């Protein structure tokens, strides 16, 4: 099994098979428009522009599961991303990425790349962990997605290679992406 065995609907409502991306390096990210990590869209777009011609695809999956930080409909999300961050990589429809209604892709990703903890050297590492412990302790259980902007790196064969938590900035993934390209 690989990520190519899954289907998802684009933000415009078209269902596609992820095998469309066979032979590409993928960065799969759950996103939100009203999160402290939302400025990572800028870094993700920079990575996409730098590496897309070498075979990188970024797949963004907006989710409203984390403190309601993605309240808009799919059209609002798409407009927000394009107007504020010039996002040109593929966005998908709003998706559950954890719990019983999670998209099967995210169940697969979190099974293949378990949670290893937040980067406590990131300025928001400790506050994020404390906020989750105090407000959403259930989010810390198991290997599920813990918060917006969790990123999964997938090789050209569709294998999950690594997981980067929200406390990893997109630029920090450049070296890992280059090795796979």
UniProtKB/TrEMBL annotation:
The keyword Oxidoreductase applies. GO terms for molecular function: peroxidase activity. The active site is at 35. The keyword Mitochondrion does not apply. Signal peptide: none annotated. PANTHER family: GLUTATHIONE PEROXIDASE. This is Glutathione peroxidase. It comes from Clostridium manihotivorum.
């Amino acid at each position: 099994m690989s990520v190519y065995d899954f289907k998802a609907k684009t933000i415009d409502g078209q269902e596609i098979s992820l095998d469309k991306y066979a032979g590409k390096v993928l960065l799969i990210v759950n996103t939100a428009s009203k999160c402290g990590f939302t400025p990572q869209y800028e870094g993700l777009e920079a990575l996409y522009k730098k590496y897309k011609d070498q075979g990188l695809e970024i797949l963004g999956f907006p989710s409203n599961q984390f403190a309601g930080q993605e309240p808009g409909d799919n059209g609002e999300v798409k407009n927000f991303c394009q107007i504020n961050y010039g996002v040109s990589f593929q966005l998908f429809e709003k998706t559950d990425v954890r719990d019983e209604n999670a998209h099967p892709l995210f169940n697969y990703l979190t099974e293949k790349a378990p949670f290893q903890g937040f980067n406590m050297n990131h300025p928001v590492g400790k506050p994020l962990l404390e906020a989750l412990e105090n407000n959403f302790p259930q989010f810390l259980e198991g290997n599920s997605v813990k918060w917006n902007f969790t990123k999964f790196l997938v090789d050209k064969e569709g294998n999950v290679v690594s997981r980067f938590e929200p406390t990893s900035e997109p630029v920090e993934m450049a070296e890992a992406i280059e090795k796979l390209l």
